Amino acid sequence: MDIEIKAPTFPESVADGNIITWHKKLGDSVAQDEILVDIETDKVMFEVPALVAGVLKEIVADVGATVLSQEVLAILDDADVSSKKESASQALDEKAAVKSLSTDASASAKMVAIAPAARNLIAQNGLDESLIPGTGKGGRILKEDVQKYISNQSIEVSAASSVKNNEVQVESKLIDDLAEVSRDKRVPMTRLRARVAERLVEVQKTAAILTTFNEVNMQPVMDLRQRYKDKFEKVHGVRLGFMSFFVKASIEALKRFPAVNASVDGGDIIYHNYFDIGIAVSSPRGLVVPILRNTEALSLAGIEAQINTYAIKAKEGSLTLEDISGGTFTITNGGVFGSMLSTPILNPPQSAILGMHKIEQRAVVEDGEIVARPVMYLALSYDHRIIDGQEAVQFLVTIKELLEDPARIMLEI
C-alpha cells in the first residue's frame, strides 16, 4: 500500500521550507521512524521521519525544492518490504548457482593438456596456463603457444605504457585547466543565512543605530569565580561561567532603563515588563540566538544550565522555533573568537544589544599606581529613536559598576 510522506505543519511565522537532504534513495528500505529528509526554514531545521516501515517508491520533492505545510514529499510502499526480501534471497541463490558453474568451468579449464616443454616455459615465466590458448590436438598447449603468448604480452605492456603516459599528460593538462576555471565557487544561501541577511539589512534601513563603548575590570568576577567554581559545580551540577554574571547585570540595568528593554511598533513604543534575554551561540548553520525566558526569576545556576542546554541543542541542530522566538534584549560574546572590539547589530524588533569581547591584561591606574588587570571592552548598540545617548551610556556604566563589584548583583543594589 502507498503511504504519503508529508511535510510537517509549519508555524504561522514560517511560510515554507527548502528540501536540504534526502537520507534515502529510490528503492531503499526504510525503518519506521527513520529520518527520511531534512527541511530547512528561515528559523529552524525540521526532520521528517517515516511513518511506517517500507520501501521508498517515489520522491515527489527533490533537493532544493520549496515545500509548504503538509505538502507531499514522497511515496512509501509498505507492502514492498517482504517482496524485496524475497528478491534479495532469490538473487543470492542465483549468485550462488552462477558461482558454482563458474567454479566448475574453471576446474574444467585447468584439466587442458599441456606439453612438457610448454609447462616448463609457463613455470619459468610465472604464467597463468588458463589464459594461454592451445593449438594442439584437443586444445593441447604447445611450446609455440606459450612463446606466442609471451610475445603478445610484451607488445600489450608496451602499448599500455604508452597510453598511460599520454593519459598522465592529458590529466595533468586537465588539472591545470581546472585550476584556471575553478577559482570561484557559487553556492546558494541557506534559508537561515538569507533570512538573517534580510533582517540585518532591514534593521539598518529602519533603525537609527548608534554604539557606545566602555571597559570593565574583570578581576573581581574572576576572583569570585575562582574561589567558588568547584563548590558551585558540585552543588548545582553546572560550571560557573562569565555569561551568567553579564545576564544578571543586564537585568538590573534594564530595570533602571526600561527604554533599553523596549521595542518600536509603528508609531508606538512597547515597554516590556519581563526580561527575555537572547544569548548568541554558534551552530553548524551559523549564529543563532536562543532565548532565556523570564531571566529575572533565574539564579546564576539556572542561567548557566539553560545556556549549556541551548549550546548542546545548537550544536546538534535541534533548536525549536520556540527556543529562538521572541526576546527583549540580546547579549553576544565575540570574545570567544578573539574579538577585541566590535559594533554588534540589533536583533529586530529589539532596540539594544550588548557585545562582550576578549579579556586582555591591560595597564590600569589604581590608587595612583599603574597595575595590570584583566580588562574587557563592552559595546552597546542601540536604537536612537527611543533610547537617548545619555540612557545608553548610563546603562553601560551600570553594567560596568555591577561587574566590578559583583556582590551588588547578588544583593540587587
Itemize the secondary structure elements and their pairings.
Elements lengths: L1 E5 L10 E6 L6 E2 L4 E6 L4 E5 L4 E6 L6 E2 L4 E6 L2 H30 L6 H10 L17 H39 L9 H16 L2 E9 L1 H18 L6 H14 L5 E4 L2 E4 L5 E3 L1 E3 L2 E3 L2 E2 L7 H17 L4 H4 L4 E5 L18 E5 L3 E7 L2 E15 L5 H16 L2 H5 L2
Parallel strand pairs: 12-16, 16-17
Antiparallel strand pairs: 1-8, 2-4, 2-7, 3-6, 4-5, 6-8, 9-19, 10-11, 12-15, 13-14, 17-19, 18-19
Number of domains: 3
Low-confidence stretches: 100-110
Query: Based on the structure given, which CATH architecture of the largest domain is correct?
Result: 2-Layer Sandwich
**Helices and strands: which structural class?**
alpha+beta
The share of residues in helices is 40-55%
Considering the protein shown, what is the CATH homologous superfamily of the largest domain?
A: Chloramphenicol acetyltransferase-like domain
CATH class identity of the largest domain:
Alpha Beta
**Average of per-residue pLDDT values:** 83
Strand content: 15-25%
The succession of helices and strands, N to C, reads: EEEEEEEEHHHHEHHEEEEEEHHEEEEHH
Walk me through what this model shows.
This protein is α+β, with helices and mostly antiparallel strands. The chain has 3 domains: 2-78, RNA polymerase II/Efflux pump adaptor protein, barrel-sandwich hybrid domain (OB fold (Dihydrolipoamide Acetyltransferase, E2P)), CATH 2.40.50.100; 112-188, Dihydrolipoamide Transferase (Irregular); 192-411, Chloramphenicol acetyltransferase-like domain (Chloramphenicol Acetyltransferase). It is 41% helix and 24% strand. The protein has helices at 80-109, 116-125, 143-181, 191-206, 219-236, 243-256, 300-316, 321-324, 389-404, 407-411; strands at residues 2-6, 17-22, 29-30, 35-40, 45-49, 54-59, 66-67, 72-77, 209-217, 262-265, 268-271, 277-279, 281-283, 286-288, 291-292, 329-333, 352-356, 360-366, 369-383. Strands 9, 12, 15, 16, 17, 18 and 19 form a 7-stranded mixed sheet that branches. The chain starts with a strand and ends with a helix. The model is unreliable at 100-110 (pLDDT under 50).
